[in-house]
Amino acid sequence: xxxxxxxxxxxxxxxxxxxxxxxxxxxxxxxxxxxxxxxxxxxxxxxxxxxxxxxxxxxxxxxxxxxxxxxxxxxxxxxxxxxxxxxxxxxxxxxxxxxxxxxxxxxxxxxxxxxxxxxxxxxxxxxxxxxxxxxxxxxxxxxxxxxxxxxxxxxxxxxxxxxxxxxxxxxxxxxxxxxxxxxxxxxxxxxxxxxxxxxxxxxxxxxxxxxxxxxxxxxxxxxxxxxxxxxxxxxxxxxxxxxxxxxxxxxxxxxxxxxxxxxxxxxxxxxxxxxxxxxxxxxxxxxxxxxxxxxxxxxxxxxxxxxxxxxxxxxxxxxxxxxxxxxxxxxxxxxxxxxxxxxxxxxxxxxxxxxxxxxxxxxxxxxxxxxxxxxxxxxxxxxxxxxxxxxxxxxxxxxxxxxxxxxxxxxxxxxxxxxxxxxxxxxxxxxxxxxxxx
Length: 438
Description:
single chain; alpha/beta; Rossmann fold; LDH C-terminal domain-like; 2 domains; six-stranded parallel β-sheet; three-stranded antiparallel β-sheet; 12 strands; 48% helix
């Protein structure tokens, strides 16, 4: 069994998944891992860390290879993980700071809105090149993507490579379930849930503990100011919409027209900063002290810092186990809707419960989402659809239109202002975009 990691230098995902891999009940001699990254320094660190993980768990470090050339790694791959970042910190800074000059205030800006749209335009061409190589060299591989903007990238790939087994994985459902367990004072491993919607905006349609509905208790907890202050916008949405949404309050504050359009609303709904909605928080996340980060990588690679071997919340290796050995593992996965959620377009990318069985991934039927939930999903989906069209056809008008109808951008700016902002982003980010845009 060969597993290839493209963007292996994304340490958090790769380390977690490798630790999960060595815990699986596979014949050890059958595991082969290929690490790919264009950053040789990062690749060197993760290669050393991966070898250490294998050796400490009794596997041979020779079962791991590392290369900067993905075409060397892809042949015979049965599973391919993708976790890449296209563009540097300066590109992300432009994603945040140019819209902010116009009054569009983003916290993360990696999913929709001006930041998400331009990240998609930078990233999609690279993802398509990767998928072109997979289609040639490993056409039957299951491709498991962790790269944002998740929905837009999955949609672009499915339009360009409809036969590729390409799925999007995120941990927002699992993380939210754990957070809700904490708010409720319950053991997280016993929380039961049924979640569906779109990535970063899926809904806990059911929330149970030992068969009992937990929403009445959560409504009681939502009266506690100390709890609400931890997750401000999501509790406000829960109060008005009746269901709890996935992903952090900071993310969710920028996916709708309600929280980030005026300074007084920002003060009210993003207290404490950080993941709760701080302006440009992504720049802090990505701009942390590089020297300290590399010292941590060296400590993990050299063995002076212990590697945590607890099971992660990531779905990746559990999916591989079910695909290889059967059973019936359920995970929320991003894939073409095709009627799973009956009141969302069939061609959009939905995040729905899927049953992973031997050799296949089978989405569950969800039916209609409640109207007040699907209305917000549709606002986002229509913007995503225009981004996908713009990327595939190099159509600037579609990119403008995607932001005309973006919930946050439209709440702040006029049509002329949106177009002017977008044109400025095109010009300022020219070096990060394909020449065909100009």
